[in-house]
Amino acid sequence: MTAQRTRRQFLHDSMLAAAAGVATVPMFSGRSRAQGTSPNDRLLCAVIGCNGRGGSHIDEYCERKDVEIAYIVDVDEKVGQKACDSIEKRMGRRPKWVKDMRVVFDDKSVHFISTATPNHWHALCGVWAMQAGKDAYIEKPISHDIPEGSALVAAAKKYGRICQVGTQCRSNPAVRDAMQFIADGGIGQVNLSRGLCYKRRKSIGALGDYPIPAEADFDLWSGPAPYKTPKLTRQSLHYDWHWQRLYGNGDSGNQGPHQTDIARWGLGLNRHPNSVIAYGGRLGYQAERNDPAYVDAGDTANTEIAIYDYGDKCMIFETRGLSVDNPADIHITTMFDSTKGNKIGVIFYGTEGYLVQREYTHCVAYDLKGQAIREFKGGGDHFGNFLDAVRSRKAETLNSDAFQGHLSASLAHLANISYYLGESNKVSVSEAKAVLEEVASRDQNIETLNRTVRHLKDNGVDLDKYPMSMGPLLTFDPQTEVFTNSDAANKILHREYRPPFVCPTADKV
Ligand SMILES: NC(=O)c1ccc[n+]([C@@H]2O[C@H](COP(=O)([O-])OP(=O)(O)OC[C@H]3O[C@@H](n4cnc5c(N)ncnc54)[C@H](O)[C@@H]3O)[C@@H](O)[C@H]2O)c1
Q1: Which residue, of 103, 410, 413, 473, is most buried by count of CB atoms within 10 Å of its CB?
Q2: Which domains does the chain have, with CATH numbers?
Q3: The pLDDT of residue 39 is above 90
């Protein structure tokens, strides 16, 4: 499709295609049953965005004889050709490489897309795909902001498409069984969960002007985001965009959605929270570089605490990008491995015990004395769950549909909005305490603050020189998805698009 063609025209074509029964889905299912599958029974797919996570998507589909990767889409030709080489070697067929995803949407033979582009492209890619009659596996977070997530939910419904979100823990028996154990009262009444993303994130280098790799089309890479100058302000085109807010959502929106998804699931919450407050900063890199003037190219928080109030339930999410290999952190992580390094997981606090998601495929329940009472283990097949639904057309069998993905991505967006609005509101520790004493789950808030302060000090952060920022407490209407106490927050709820890369709102998909 040319950039000049409108989405309306596109939609019109897609509906005609659907009416004509194009891209009828073959009815075989599963890895083993696919042995000997004839070419006519194969599902044709396009993998869009193939550098890091996209490589895992490719691995998944190469494993399955009932799927053929017909297209590799990547705006970086080097990445795209490398992916094609690898597929040709393994499958004996070379997919077509294209740099513009709209080519795929025009090809009626493609059944589904599987996308691992940067976050700012997820929703538009998914909406375009579904308008064109394709099913979609979309990486987490499925959106760059809240209205984009709603648009995906609406598009899946309107076009009757299968849309799976890449929060793969949802398919792991370890986590599924543990969540069921909580729902069955295994640790009593649970009103609080705490998600942890303690994942070391070093500086991505100084803010500056860096060349764009010759093989990459930066205009297409930027897509819906602003494209003022064909210059990178970070050293690396790939991956490090996670820490620039125009494209990524920080670690709250990167690792975060895996854990907030579980933290919300275990509390049985299928809705947005009533309020959020977040504090933190992008801290510690000056100390790390021994240079007080150092300005890192990232502008998302590397330390962010978010508190979500659901009325009778509460979720806390802690993001730490500095080292956690120090004594201040040990007591919160005793229920995790005693080994040092990343600590990623969720802790549920019940009246009769605790339940901890320690790894993607391992959860443990404890009694109130800290004795393990039950273990949950095992990984699942998230892509297989998606492919089964693609064939059966039963969206209700998806383990992680667009709605769940939307709710969990929104948790990152809500926290970031509070943090961004409060970015210039630098607070001392006692000022932070005064604010947090007034917010729901008060005792937990102060404990969390104290731990965060110790953690920052352990990493050489001088909080007098580089204080944390405190965001406002924002109240949110879970139904209408607007803030009820802040025009400023509503102003940054949705991004401005750069035509023609415009993701429609839910009512216009
Ligand atoms: N589910 C998981 O466990 C998991 C793990 C890692 C990453 N992810 C998600 O996967 C996504 C990708 O992360 P990554 O680390 O691989 O990033 P990356 O920057 O390494 O790779 C992104 C790729 O997308 C390409 N790209 C950019 N715009 C494109 C466009 N318009 N069309 C086609 N290709 C385009 C880039 O050239 C690059 O090759 C992120 O959203 C991330 O959150 C999920």
Answers
A1: 410
A2: 7-170 (3.40.50.720), 172-379+402-495 (3.30.360.10)
A3: no
Whether ligand 1 lies within 6 angstroms of the CB of 43 is answered as no
What is the rounded CA–CA span in Å between residue 368 and residue 259? 23
Q: Which two tokens stand for residue 424?
A: 């210039």
pLDDT score at 340: 47
CA distance 371 to 196: 21
Q: What is the pLDDT of residue 40?
A: 65
Identify whether the C-beta of residue 283 lies closer than 8 Å to the C-beta of residue 320.
Answer: no
Distance 241 CA to ligand 1 centre (A): 10
Ligand 1 pocket residue status of 238, Cβ below 6 Å: yes
The residue to which tokens 């002007």 are assigned:
209
Confidence of residue 326 (pLDDT cuts 50, 70, 90): low
Answer yes or no: is the C-beta of 223 below 6 A from any ligand 1 atom.
Answer: yes
* 126-130, 133-137, 350-354: range with lowest mean pLDDT: 350-354
Mind listing the pLDDT tens digit for each residue in 455-499? 999 899 999 999 999 999 999 999 999 999 999 999 999 999 999
Q: Of all protein residues, whose CA lies closest to atom 11 belonging to ligand 1?
A: 116
Could you tell me the two tokens for 383?
Answer: 């892509």
Q: Where are the beta strands (DSSP E) in 299-370?
A: 303-309, 314-320, 343-350, 353-359, 362-367
Cα(242) to centroid(ligand 1), Å? 10
State whether the beta carbon of 118 lies less than 6 angstroms from ligand 1.
Answer: yes
Between residues 193 and 30, the one the model is more confident about: 193
Which residue's alpha carbon is at the smallest distance from atom 23 of ligand 1?
49
Is the minimum distance from the CB of 58 to ligand 1 under 6 angstroms? no
Q: What is the 8-class DSSP label of residue 42?
A: P
User: What's the mean pLDDT when you consider all of the chain?
Assistant: 90
Residue 80 CA, closest ligand 1 atom number: 39
pTM comes to: 0.93
Which residues neighbour 338 within 8 Å (Cβ) at sequence distance 6 or greater?
A: none
Q: Is the CB of 257 under 6 A from ligand 1?
A: no
At 447 the pLDDT is 87
